[in-house]
Write a structure and sequence with these properties.
The chain contains eight helices and eight strands; from the N terminus they run ααββββαβαβββαααα. It folds into two domains: about 5-70, Arc Repressor Mutant, subunit A (Orthogonal Bundle); about 75-205, no CATH class. The strands form three sheets. A four-stranded mixed sheet has the order 5-6-8-7. Strands 1-2 form a two-stranded antiparallel sheet. Strands 3-4 form a two-stranded antiparallel ribbon. By secondary structure, it is of the alpha+beta class. Helix content is about 45%, strand content about 15%.
Protein backbone atom coordinates (compact mmCIF):
# COMPACT_ATOMS: atom_id res chain seq x y z
CA UNK A 1 0.00 0.00 0.00
CA UNK A 2 1.52 3.32 -1.01
CA UNK A 3 1.79 6.37 1.24
CA UNK A 4 -1.01 8.30 -0.53
CA UNK A 5 -3.45 5.43 -0.05
CA UNK A 6 -2.51 5.18 3.62
CA UNK A 7 -3.15 8.89 4.07
CA UNK A 8 -6.54 8.63 2.35
CA UNK A 9 -7.57 5.64 4.46
CA UNK A 10 -6.55 7.35 7.70
CA UNK A 11 -8.51 10.47 6.76
CA UNK A 12 -11.56 8.44 5.74
CA UNK A 13 -11.50 6.58 9.05
CA UNK A 14 -11.17 9.80 11.08
CA UNK A 15 -14.03 11.43 9.19
CA UNK A 16 -16.25 8.39 9.90
CA UNK A 17 -15.50 8.84 13.60
CA UNK A 18 -16.60 12.50 13.56
CA UNK A 19 -20.22 13.45 14.29
CA UNK A 20 -22.32 13.93 11.16
CA UNK A 21 -22.85 17.64 10.44
CA UNK A 22 -19.71 18.81 12.26
CA UNK A 23 -17.52 20.85 9.87
CA UNK A 24 -13.75 20.36 9.67
CA UNK A 25 -10.70 21.81 7.93
CA UNK A 26 -7.72 20.02 6.33
CA UNK A 27 -5.55 20.98 9.33
CA UNK A 28 -7.43 18.36 11.38
CA UNK A 29 -5.66 15.64 9.38
CA UNK A 30 -2.08 16.88 9.06
CA UNK A 31 -0.91 13.98 11.24
CA UNK A 32 -2.02 11.68 8.42
CA UNK A 33 0.25 13.11 5.73
CA UNK A 34 1.53 16.19 3.94
CA UNK A 35 -0.84 19.08 3.31
CA UNK A 36 -0.84 18.27 -0.40
CA UNK A 37 -1.79 14.62 0.18
CA UNK A 38 -4.49 15.64 2.67
CA UNK A 39 -5.97 18.15 0.22
CA UNK A 40 -5.90 15.54 -2.54
CA UNK A 41 -7.62 12.92 -0.37
CA UNK A 42 -10.36 15.38 0.67
CA UNK A 43 -10.86 16.49 -2.94
CA UNK A 44 -11.37 12.86 -4.01
CA UNK A 45 -13.86 12.29 -1.21
CA UNK A 46 -15.83 15.36 -2.35
CA UNK A 47 -15.93 14.01 -5.92
CA UNK A 48 -17.05 10.63 -4.60
CA UNK A 49 -19.86 12.27 -2.63
CA UNK A 50 -18.57 11.03 0.74
CA UNK A 51 -18.16 14.59 2.06
CA UNK A 52 -19.28 18.06 0.96
CA UNK A 53 -17.19 21.20 0.56
CA UNK A 54 -19.03 23.85 2.62
CA UNK A 55 -16.78 26.69 1.55
CA UNK A 56 -13.11 27.04 0.65
CA UNK A 57 -11.06 24.98 3.12
CA UNK A 58 -14.11 23.73 5.04
CA UNK A 59 -15.78 20.34 4.67
CA UNK A 60 -18.52 18.30 6.31
CA UNK A 61 -20.06 14.84 6.28
CA UNK A 62 -23.53 16.30 5.90
CA UNK A 63 -26.68 15.31 7.67
CA UNK A 64 -29.27 14.00 5.24
CA UNK A 65 -32.91 15.04 5.36
CA UNK A 66 -35.57 13.22 3.39
CA UNK A 67 -37.21 16.60 2.82
CA UNK A 68 -34.33 18.83 1.73
CA UNK A 69 -31.44 16.43 1.11
CA UNK A 70 -28.07 17.61 2.42
CA UNK A 71 -28.28 19.81 5.50
CA UNK A 72 -25.42 22.28 5.81
CA UNK A 73 -23.89 22.93 9.27
CA UNK A 74 -25.28 25.79 11.37
CA UNK A 75 -23.58 29.18 10.76
CA UNK A 76 -22.17 29.23 14.32
CA UNK A 77 -20.42 25.89 13.70
CA UNK A 78 -18.94 27.21 10.46
CA UNK A 79 -17.74 30.39 12.22
CA UNK A 80 -16.24 28.47 15.15
CA UNK A 81 -14.41 26.01 12.88
CA UNK A 82 -12.96 28.79 10.72
CA UNK A 83 -11.90 30.75 13.81
CA UNK A 84 -10.24 27.71 15.35
CA UNK A 85 -7.74 27.59 12.49
CA UNK A 86 -6.33 30.94 13.67
CA UNK A 87 -6.85 30.31 17.38
CA UNK A 88 -9.55 32.99 17.49
CA UNK A 89 -12.58 33.33 19.77
CA UNK A 90 -16.08 33.57 18.29
CA UNK A 91 -19.26 34.88 19.89
CA UNK A 92 -22.81 35.38 18.67
CA UNK A 93 -23.21 38.99 17.53
CA UNK A 94 -24.88 41.35 20.01
CA UNK A 95 -27.92 41.91 17.77
CA UNK A 96 -28.79 38.20 17.80
CA UNK A 97 -27.91 37.95 21.51
CA UNK A 98 -30.32 40.81 22.29
CA UNK A 99 -33.05 39.08 20.27
CA UNK A 100 -32.51 35.82 22.16
CA UNK A 101 -32.92 37.66 25.47
CA UNK A 102 -36.13 39.30 24.25
CA UNK A 103 -34.60 42.80 24.35
CA UNK A 104 -35.37 43.46 20.68
CA UNK A 105 -37.66 41.88 18.09
CA UNK A 106 -35.36 42.66 15.18
CA UNK A 107 -33.95 39.59 13.47
CA UNK A 108 -30.52 39.99 11.79
CA UNK A 109 -30.80 39.46 8.03
CA UNK A 110 -27.55 37.51 7.84
CA UNK A 111 -25.44 35.52 10.30
CA UNK A 112 -22.87 37.82 11.92
CA UNK A 113 -20.40 36.77 14.63
CA UNK A 114 -17.93 38.74 16.71
CA UNK A 115 -14.37 37.42 16.74
CA UNK A 116 -10.95 38.18 18.16
CA UNK A 117 -9.52 37.22 14.77
CA UNK A 118 -9.60 39.13 11.48
CA UNK A 119 -12.87 40.28 9.94
CA UNK A 120 -13.91 38.14 6.97
CA UNK A 121 -16.87 37.06 4.87
CA UNK A 122 -17.56 33.37 4.27
CA UNK A 123 -19.79 32.31 1.40
CA UNK A 124 -21.80 29.13 2.10
CA UNK A 125 -24.04 28.44 -0.87
CA UNK A 126 -26.31 31.46 -1.22
CA UNK A 127 -25.66 32.57 2.36
CA UNK A 128 -22.90 34.89 3.54
CA UNK A 129 -21.54 34.55 7.08
CA UNK A 130 -19.68 37.56 8.46
CA UNK A 131 -16.97 37.47 11.10
CA UNK A 132 -16.49 40.92 12.62
CA UNK A 133 -13.35 41.73 14.62
CA UNK A 134 -14.00 43.21 18.07
CA UNK A 135 -11.77 43.94 21.07
CA UNK A 136 -11.01 41.06 23.44
CA UNK A 137 -13.05 42.36 26.37
CA UNK A 138 -16.27 42.15 24.35
CA UNK A 139 -15.65 38.41 24.06
CA UNK A 140 -15.36 37.64 27.78
CA UNK A 141 -17.29 34.45 28.64
CA UNK A 142 -17.78 33.64 24.94
CA UNK A 143 -19.59 30.38 24.31
CA UNK A 144 -21.75 30.43 27.45
CA UNK A 145 -25.04 32.15 28.41
CA UNK A 146 -23.27 34.83 30.47
CA UNK A 147 -21.17 35.71 27.42
CA UNK A 148 -24.33 35.97 25.33
CA UNK A 149 -25.75 38.36 27.95
CA UNK A 150 -22.59 40.47 27.80
CA UNK A 151 -22.82 40.65 24.00
CA UNK A 152 -26.45 41.76 24.28
CA UNK A 153 -25.51 44.51 26.75
CA UNK A 154 -22.75 45.83 24.48
CA UNK A 155 -25.20 45.89 21.58
CA UNK A 156 -27.99 47.68 23.48
CA UNK A 157 -25.58 50.45 24.45
CA UNK A 158 -25.25 53.14 27.09
CA UNK A 159 -28.71 54.69 26.70
CA UNK A 160 -30.61 51.39 26.86
CA UNK A 161 -28.71 49.51 29.55
CA UNK A 162 -30.51 50.27 32.82
CA UNK A 163 -30.87 48.34 36.10
CA UNK A 164 -34.33 47.30 34.83
CA UNK A 165 -32.84 45.80 31.66
CA UNK A 166 -30.21 43.98 33.74
CA UNK A 167 -33.13 42.50 35.70
CA UNK A 168 -34.71 41.18 32.49
CA UNK A 169 -31.43 39.50 31.60
CA UNK A 170 -31.05 38.02 35.07
CA UNK A 171 -34.45 36.35 34.72
CA UNK A 172 -33.16 34.47 31.66
CA UNK A 173 -29.89 33.34 33.30
CA UNK A 174 -29.22 30.65 35.87
CA UNK A 175 -27.76 31.79 39.20
CA UNK A 176 -24.34 30.45 38.13
CA UNK A 177 -24.38 32.33 34.83
CA UNK A 178 -25.49 35.61 36.42
CA UNK A 179 -22.66 35.26 38.94
CA UNK A 180 -20.29 34.72 35.99
CA UNK A 181 -21.60 37.91 34.39
CA UNK A 182 -20.98 39.82 37.63
CA UNK A 183 -17.44 38.41 37.76
CA UNK A 184 -16.36 40.24 34.57
CA UNK A 185 -17.29 43.81 35.58
CA UNK A 186 -13.63 44.75 35.09
CA UNK A 187 -14.10 44.06 31.36
CA UNK A 188 -17.20 46.29 31.20
CA UNK A 189 -17.39 50.01 30.48
CA UNK A 190 -18.50 52.06 33.51
CA UNK A 191 -22.06 52.59 32.21
CA UNK A 192 -22.56 48.83 32.04
CA UNK A 193 -20.97 47.91 35.36
CA UNK A 194 -22.86 50.79 37.08
CA UNK A 195 -26.21 49.50 35.83
CA UNK A 196 -25.32 45.99 36.98
CA UNK A 197 -24.23 47.25 40.40
CA UNK A 198 -27.42 49.32 40.85
CA UNK A 199 -29.61 46.37 39.89
CA UNK A 200 -27.82 44.01 42.31
CA UNK A 201 -27.99 46.60 45.10
CA UNK A 202 -31.73 47.24 44.64
CA UNK A 203 -32.47 43.51 44.37
CA UNK A 204 -30.57 42.92 47.62
CA UNK A 205 -32.50 45.73 49.34
CA UNK A 206 -35.84 44.25 48.20
CA UNK A 207 -34.93 40.77 49.44
CA UNK A 208 -33.68 42.21 52.76
CA UNK A 209 -37.02 43.96 53.34
CA UNK A 210 -38.96 40.97 52.06
Amino acid sequence: MNFATTTAEQIRQRIQERPVGEPFTPTAFLECGTRASVDQALSRMVKAGAITRVTRGLFVRPEMSRFVGKVMPAPIKVAETIAKTTGSIVQVHGAEAARQFGLTTQTPTQPVFSTSGPSKRIRVGKMEIRLQHVCQRKLALAGRPAGLALAALWYMGKNEVTPLLIGKIQQKLSVTEFEALKSVTSAMPSWMSDALFKHVRSASAVSAHG
